[in-house]
Write a structure and sequence with these properties.
Elements (H helix, E strand, L loop, with lengths): L11 H8 L28 E3 L6 E3 L5 H8 L5 E6 L5 H7 L2 E4 L19 E6 L2 H11 L12 H16 L7 E5 L9 H15 L4 E5 L7 H16 L18 H4 L1 H7 L6 H7 L2 H13 L6 H21 L11 H10 L8 E5 L8 H9 L3 H6 L6 H6 L3 E6 L2 E2 L2 E2 L6 E7 L4 H15 L1
Parallel strand pairs: 6-7, 6-8
Antiparallel strand pairs: 1-2, 3-5, 4-5, 4-9, 8-12, 9-12, 10-11
Length: about 450
């Protein structure tokens, strides 16, 4: 669709990196318009990494698979990606790198090609947590050109309770939440073992482990695949060959001889051929899905309900985190309820889950799934652990950990990721816990 197009300006994050002395090496391959979990929906071909044998390839995850592979293969110090439902964290988990998604609105989206405005977050992929932190510290900050960028005053208000918390940090260790809902049938036993070993490492350092309920997260994936395509169908409407995109002329002169046949084929619509031929199959699928959920007959049953689920997911997180969500204006009743919970069971500082349900699948497995009519749903399930944090706008990071088979580390498989999620605005604590886990794993 955008072949040959050159943007007339750079994104804010690129400008800030260049101002700090960074060298922008190039653009990385990814799923078309960021739509995919395996970086196989690209006009340039799939992004892959070596498998167990020379002629067998594994997926790198998506949609920012090219960025993750560039870091994993040491082609660059760090790379950027946009995380809508896990597009930075999932590739990081499957390539043995660190993938950090900041709190929504902390990093400017100005210059980013939009997929879903209320979910898109510019993230960082790096070889270690310290490098990810360095890049994040450069690109974060208010940007007046981005209407979703958090203002300087709001940032200060968010940091106030965090600073008060940090001053009394010595009173108790970090309390780590383990969600009950993460123990699902789709979770690979080796990944569950790696996850448990990772949290036990932190527990051995004196940090507390608590089981926490996040009941609505079971519906988060379904809500995401209603909301994201709905926003995408609106955002991608401008790619019609008139405003943006390469125009494709009508395929025949049917319209001149048989207007009814032209109507059935779509040849009587100016942009039908352009969008039908220039968009890939996955993009067309999501545009159709989003257009339907926004239609007058379906909006109440799908889009509005998905928005309600999203708020319930956010509320679930707020109920288990010790730190209040400073974006909200808490009532006196809510404040009183939080006071009563301080130091009690169920109040945690971070939540730790797997990043993905399975190790990086082989490319041949994905091709087999693609041939199956139910394959999109199976591939969408790879986002089940990353989507909840995206819906709530929370900071989350994937840290690589070894893959275990029983008590033995599996050297024949790439490492997998463990995800650390914090309350909104608590990005620094998420990075600190990730650094500690990184040291323990090493």
């Amino acid at each position: 669709m955008l072949q040959g197009y050159n943007s007339p300006f750079s994104a804010t994050v690129v400008e800030r990196l260049q101002a700090a002395g960074a060298v922008i090496a190039g653009k990385a391959n990814l799923d078309e318009f960021g739509m995919g979990s395996h970086s196989i929906n690209s006009v340039h071909g799939a992004v892959t990494q070596p498998g167990p044998e020379p002629d067998i390839q594994r997926t790198v995850g998506g949609s920012s698979g090219g960025s993750a592979l560039a870091v994993a293969s040491e082609q660059c110090f760090a790379a950027l990606g946009t995380d809508t439902g896990g597009s930075v964290r999932l590739p990081a988990a499957w390539t043995g790198t660190v993938g950090f998604k900041p709190s929504y609105g902390m990093v400017s989206r100005w210059g980013v090609v939009a997929y879903a405005n209320s979910l898109d977050t510019v993230g960082v992929i790096a070889s270690n947590v310290a490098s990810a932190r360095n890049v994040y510290n450069i690109v974060k900050g208010h940007d007046s050109r981005d209407p979703t960028s958090i203002s300087t005053q709001t940032r200060a208000r968010i940091q106030s309770p965090i600073q008060a918390r940090d001053q009394r940090r010595h009173i108790r260790p970090i309390r780590i939440g383990i969600p009950n809902e993460c123990f699902i049938n789709e979770l690979h036993p080796s990944i569950q073992k790696s996850w448990m070993i990772a949290v036990q490492h932190l527990n051995s350092q004196g940090h507390s482990l608590l089981s926490v309920p996040l009941p609505t997260t079971k519906a988060a994936l379904s809500a995401y695949y209603v909301l994201a395509p709905a926003e995408a169908s609106s955002n991608l409407a401008k790619y019609d060959g008139v405003r943006y995109g390469n125009k494709v002329p009508p395929s025949s002169t049917t319209a001149n001889h048989d207007p009814e046949a032209a109507r059935r084929q779509g040849d009587d619509v100016l942009f039908s051929q352009t969008r039908g031929q220039n968009f890939g199959a996955e993009v067309r699928r999501r545009i159709l899905l989003g257009s339907y959920t926004l239609s007058s007959t379906a909006i109440d049953n799908y889009f509005i309900r998905a928005q309600k689920v999203r708020r319930m997911v956010q509320k679930d997180f707020d109920n288990v985190f010790a730190l209040p969500n400073s974006l909200l204006c808490p009532s006196k009743e809510n404040e009183k309820g939080k006071e009563g919970l301080i130091g009690s069971k169920g109040e945690v500082d971070v939540i730790i889950t797997p990043t993905a349900t399975r190790p990086a699948p082989l490319l041949s497995e994905l091709r087999s799934e693609e041939a199956d009519m139910s394959s999109p749903a199976r591939r969408y399930c790879d986002d089940v652990y990353t989507v909840p944090a995206s819906l709530a706008g929370l900071p989350a990071i994937s840290v690589p950990v070894p893959l275990f088979d029983g008590e033995k580390e599996r050297r024949d498989e790439p490492s997998v990721g463990v995800q650390i999620t914090g309350q909104y605005g608590d990005d620094e604590l998420v990075l600190s816990v990730a650094e500690e886990l990184e040291r323990l794993v090493e």
